[in-house]
Design a protein that fits this description.
The chain is an alpha+beta fold and 408 residues long. It has 3 domains: 153 residues, 2-Layer Sandwich (Nucleotidyltransferase, domain 5), CATH 3.30.420.40; 77 residues, Dna Ligase, domain 1 (2-Layer Sandwich), CATH 3.30.1490; 157 residues, ATPase, nucleotide binding domain (Nucleotidyltransferase, domain 5, 2-Layer Sandwich), CATH 3.30.420. The protein has 12 helices and 18 strands. The strands form 5 sheets. The chain has a 5-stranded mixed sheet, with helices on both faces. A 5-stranded mixed sheet has the order 14-13-12-17-18, sandwiched between helices. It has a 4-stranded antiparallel sheet with strand order 7-10-8-9. Strand 12 and strand 13 form a beta hairpin. Helix 6 crosses helix 7.
Length: 408
């Protein structure tokens, strides 16, 4: 069966690299998963690349495996950027409508979006993406598409996502050094939102919480628009480290115990657990620990994450509560009873997210970011955006997909 070109998504996380390749079936127009690779990575700390050579080698290995799986040559990728250096800030732009008949043109829209970027940023920070929230024509706001409307003055309120430039350079250098080009760099929270959240949830008001190994990414939507984004430097890796200290064992065994016996809420029942230690460590000894203590350690750290989410929600310009509540995803969200704990702490509806628009994804809570990358790429292809430059540092390319954010 003939297929269009393969789209590759590269999710560079704190503990692993996930690469996925999809192609569109020309008969059904559906996206088919051609291959998935999940490999360990070293040289990434809390979502930030700090050892370029090591990460570059891991990228090369992962994409080589993906090429072997799919049988297709991969030359360029859509990748994510994470880390608590990413922040969002509101901005405003104003221009005078240029045409003599006072009709707002595409050029006017592009100019006002460019004008909204004329704000002061701290040293070594740059804009990753711009998200218009509303256009204002001669003082009348709440306009989503101002094309062909008549007016003298056009304004826009936007949310700008920004990042620390040296960290972005480290990321792009690692990929380019591995021999691959970059089609786009998308913040992890937005990639996960693309694959997990529905347009209806975004319209109602929803908060995505993606709990990874080293960071937790958060994106808040209302009336279809992104209104806030944040990244916390705490994730499921911190839970494992706390368990290693509390149980006086190594990190590998603590991770095993977390996956096998962990829970976010103590429900009684089991009192003690026994785990046989590796021979090289304990000579066949058995580690005995309190299940209640295990849950208490996990609950404390997960509550810390939800406390950060609560604080960020209070900072958002939300017009009301979030009817669609909280949607959880990421490897750290696989802990039993986490939904119940989130409901208790956040006082909102909570559900686990599921990847939308891609069939055959294995263990999709781990693949939300990678899936969102290829779905975002497919969106751009549908809009004729496949001939974009390799590095997404310029905003001209971003403007091509501005109005995608307003599609219900």
């Amino acid at each position: 069966m003939a297929r269009n070109h393969v789209i590759a998504g590269l999710d560079i996380g704190t503990s692993s690299i996930k690469a996925i390749a999809v192609a569109r079936d020309p008969e059904t127009n559906a996206l088919e998963v051609m291959g998935q690779v999940n490999t360990p990575v070293f040289g990434v700390r809390r979502g930030v690349v700090f050892k370029i050579d090591q990460v570059s080698k891991s990228i090369s290995d992962a994409l080589s495996q993906l090429q072997a799986q799919t049988g297709y040559r991969i030359e360029d990728v859509y990748t994510n950027i994470g880390g608590s250096h990413i922040f969002s800030t509101p901005s405003h732009g104003t221009v005078v409508v240029s045409r003599a008949d006072q009709k707002i043109s595409e050029e006017d829209v592009n100019r006002v979006i460019q004008a909204s970027q004329a704000f002061s940023l701290p040293s070594n920070r740059e804009i990753l993406d711009i998200f218009p929230r509303e256009f204002i024509v001669d003082g009348q706001g709440n306009i989503k598409e101002p094309y062909d409307m008549q007016g003298l003055r056009l304004e826009v309120d936007v949310l700008a996502l920004c990042a620390f430039s040296p960290f972005l350079k480290n990321l792009t250098s690692a990929i380019l050094s591995a021999g691959f080009q970059i089609q786009d760099v998308i913040p992890s929270a937005l990639a996960s939102s693309r694959s997990i959240l529905t347009p209806q949830q975004k319209e109602l008001g929803v908060c995505l919480v993606d709990i990874g190994a080293g960071t937790t990414d958060m994106a808040v939507y209302e009336e279809g628009d992104l209104v806030h984004a944040a990244v916390f430097p705490v994730g499921s890796e911190r839970i494992t480290n706390d368990l290693a200290v509390g149980l006086k064992t190594d990190v590998e065994l603590a991770e095993q115990i977390k996956k096998e016996f962990g829970s976010c809420i103590w429900t009684g029942g089991r009192k003690k657990e026994k785990v046989e230690l590796p021979k090289e460590e304990g000579n066949g000894d058995v580690l005995v620990f309190s299940h209640k203590m295990l849950v208490k350690i996990i609950e404390a750290r997960v509550c810390e994450i939800f406390d950060q989410v609560q604080k960020e929600l209070k900072r958002t310009p939300l017009k009301g509560p979030l009817p669609a509540g909280i949607v959880l995803t990421g490897g750290g969200a696989k802990l039993p009873k986490i939904v119940e704990l989130a409901k208790k702490e956040l006082k909102l509806p909570v559900r686990m997210g599921k990847v939308q628009g891609l069939g055959g994804i294995e263990d999709d809570s781990l693949w939300s970011t990678a899936s969102g990358l290829v779905l975002s790429a497919a969106d751009l292809d549908d809009e004729g955006g496949s001939s974009m430059p390799h590095i997404s540092s310029g905003m001209a390319k971003k403007i091509k997909r501005i109005f995608q954010n307003f599609i219900p």
